[in-house]
Amino acid sequence: MRIDIVTIFPEYLAPLELSLVGKAREADIIDIAVHDLRAYATDKHRSVDDTPYGGGPGMVMMPEPWGAALDDIRANAEVDPWLVIPTPSGYRFDQGIATTLATREHLVFACGRYEGIDARVAEHYGARDDWAGVLEYSIGDYVLGGGEAAVLVMVEAAVRLIPGVLGNAESAADDSFSKEAGPALEGPVFTKPPRWRDLDVPDVLLSGDHGRIAAWREEQARERTEQRRPDLTQG
């Protein structure tokens, strides 16, 4: 998989050199390139934003630098890329979306700032024949200072699902939101020592009875889901 990220804060994406994503890059499972949007500005101040038409507070990112940056990326792409734009007004990003993104050959993330990116950017690249499409996602019902944090979330959520990234591929199948049937959340987990600060590991987990253990975990997961995310049990 190839991932390109366009931002005015390239250093914000440094965590993508660490942990699972960093190891996937070292193993050549994924190729990530971070681009500075200001490198595509045309004035001496390297401006990328201006006041919004129609008035209102804040600034809007101009289409010209974005067009230059995205066209440059497309000119060096082997397949039609998907343009992903994090935005509070986007569709909800979830595990299903992450699973889909993990199957794409080339993703380009556009990190907006201020009041967002001029809407014509999404409209233009959504209509282009040499782009696979435009995807606008929100990682939650809140507003961030920019798209960089959301991109870190989406990239890690998708990359860990690519074959060869996780040390044990079965662990992803048992994650919260990944279960094909039953509770959506994963239950509590424990490790050594068996007693810590007067708290014991549940006896069932020390029993060696895999049937009882599986039933206990399913029940714990169901209770946790009903308590913390009742919306996932409806319907």
Give me the secondary-structure category.
Answer: alpha/beta
- Point out poorly predicted stretches: none
Q: For this structure, what is the CATH class of the largest domain?
A: Alpha Beta
Compute the number of structural domains: 2
Q: Could you please say which CATH topology of the largest domain applies here?
A: Alpha/beta knot
Strand content bin: 15-25%
Distance between the termini: 36 Å
Question: Care to describe what's here?
Answer:
By secondary structure, the chain is α/β, with parallel strands linked by helices. It has 2 domains: 2-159, SPOUT methyltransferase, trefoil knot domain (Alpha/beta knot, 3-Layer(aba) Sandwich); 174-233, tRNA(m1g37)methyltransferase, domain 2 (Trp Operon Repressor, Chain A). It is 31% helix and 18% strand. It has 7 helices and 9 strands; from the N terminus they run βαβββαβαβαβααββα. It has a 5-stranded parallel β-sheet. A two-stranded antiparallel ribbon has the order 3-4. α3 links the parallel β5 (82-92) and β6 (106-110). α3 (95-101) packs across α5 (148-159). It is elongated, with a radius of gyration of 22 Å. 25% of the residues are buried. The mean pLDDT is 93.
Short description:
By secondary structure, this protein is α/β, with parallel strands linked by helices. The chain is built from 7 helices and 9 strands. β1 (2-7), α1 and β2 form a beta-alpha-beta unit.
Label this structure with key terms:
two-stranded antiparallel ribbon; Trp Operon Repressor, Chain A; Alpha/beta knot; five-stranded parallel sheet; 2 domains; alpha/beta
